[in-house]
Amino acid sequence: MPFSLPSDLASRPTPFYLYDLALLRRTVQAAQHAARSRHIQVHYALKANANLPILHLMHEHRIGADCVSGNEVHRALEAGFRPEHIVFAGVGKSDAEINLALAADIWCFNVESGAELQVLNELAGRQSRRARVALRLNPNVDARTHHYITTGLEANKFGIGMAELPAVVDLLPTLPNIELVGLHVHIGSQITDLSVFETLCHRVNELQTWFEHRGLPLAHLNVGGGLGVNYQQPDAELVPDFEAYFSIFERLLQRRPGQQVHVELGRALVAQCGTLVSRVLYVKESQQTRFAILDAGLTELIRPALYQSFHLIENLTGQGAEQLYDVVGPICESSDTFGRRVPLPETRRGDVMVLRTAGAYGEVMASRYNLRDLAPAVYV
Ligand code: LLP
């Protein structure tokens, strides 16, 4: 079925983000079904979209929270997530953020360096607490995705490199307020080549053995997120193939008895349920190009400008023969371009234009550049 706008929204001022909560529910249920039958725990990476109605739905389906800032921890608590279902990750946690998470007694800190481990130990001591910790390792696995969203290679800033790991592990006995509970890896985002996750499983198995040889059994393995979605043809795959994804971990991860396995998905859960709705302000023709200028721009959806990423663009009201348009926003940047030479029906001022698959890393990355207003969210 082609995308359509509920009739009561047709006259609403644009731009706005439209979230289909029924699709979100179906997606979350599919993920939970595939994960639970394999005894895998799903956490949701709030960074993809931290809107409260979305978080409430996640929480209702017993999904945990993966947070990367103090404000995200705070938001997760506000949305009703229990502290024991909250993980706090991030390469640069401030003292104030760590203190907040310690005071809330969250389940686990994903720690990215020896220096951070020492700070955490000290701050936990001051609160007379023990912090549960998973070491985030850099497994040096190529996610084969856009280089800006690859995180698991030695060259990236994320995680503890294999060369540093022995020294970090040697610190542990000197840190009385730290309890090592697990291992964390995350290699990148928008991963569509599932064989990457197979390679990751083999790496995690090796790492786990490495820890055990040092007398450190791991109660939990967090294998990160990264499952990609279909930006080219969203309607062909509104719900990602979670069965294929989770079955890899079921088959290849060498789980120890009683060990917990976590994933922390962002995009795969929320990307398809969100759409950016805008109107055409002007159609402008130059010598070589016909521009459709929208009232939404990189301030509402920065992914095309930042990663040259593709979002399907549809004109919901245009009629007539298809022509090619460069679809651009109103912002004073040449990179404020959503698509070049996009085939669209003849387009006029006032036409409603949507950018699909905008639920993840859309609204959360909005800015007020050019002093624009932040676009509102509408839920159906
Ligand atoms: N866990 C960690 C440690 C992460 O860094 C991320 C995403 C996730 C989980 C969730 O990854 P996902 O399942 O959503 O792929 N702004 C970029 C994506 C940045 C992803 C950052 N980390 C984009 O718009 O493509």
UniProtKB/TrEMBL annotation:
Pathway: Amino-acid biosynthesis; L-lysine biosynthesis via DAP pathway; L-lysine from DL-2,6-diaminopimelate: step 1/1. GO terms for biological process: lysine biosynthetic process via diaminopimelate. The modification N6-(pyridoxal phosphate)lysine is found at residue 47. PROSITE patterns: ODR_DC_2_2 (PS00879). Belongs to the Orn/Lys/Arg decarboxylase class-II family. LysA subfamily. One of its GO terms (molecular function) is diaminopimelate decarboxylase activity. Pfam families: Orn_Arg_deC_N, Orn_DAP_Arg_deC. Its EC number is 4.1.1.20. The keyword Nuclease does not apply. Its cofactor is pyridoxal 5'-phosphate. Pyridoxal 5'-phosphate binds at residues 226, 264-267, 361. Keywords: Amino-acid biosynthesis, Decarboxylase, Lyase, Lysine biosynthesis, Pyridoxal phosphate. The active site is at 332 (proton donor). Specifically catalyzes the decarboxylation of meso-diaminopimelate (meso-DAP) to L-lysine. Substrate binds at residues 267, 303, 307, 333, 361. It comes from the Bacteria. This is Diaminopimelate decarboxylase. The keyword Lyase applies. Gene3D superfamilies: Alanine racemase, Lyase, Ornithine Decarboxylase, Chain A, domain 1. CDD domains: PLPDE_III_DapDC (cd06828). It catalyses: meso-2,6-diaminopimelate + H(+) = L-lysine + CO2. Homodimer.
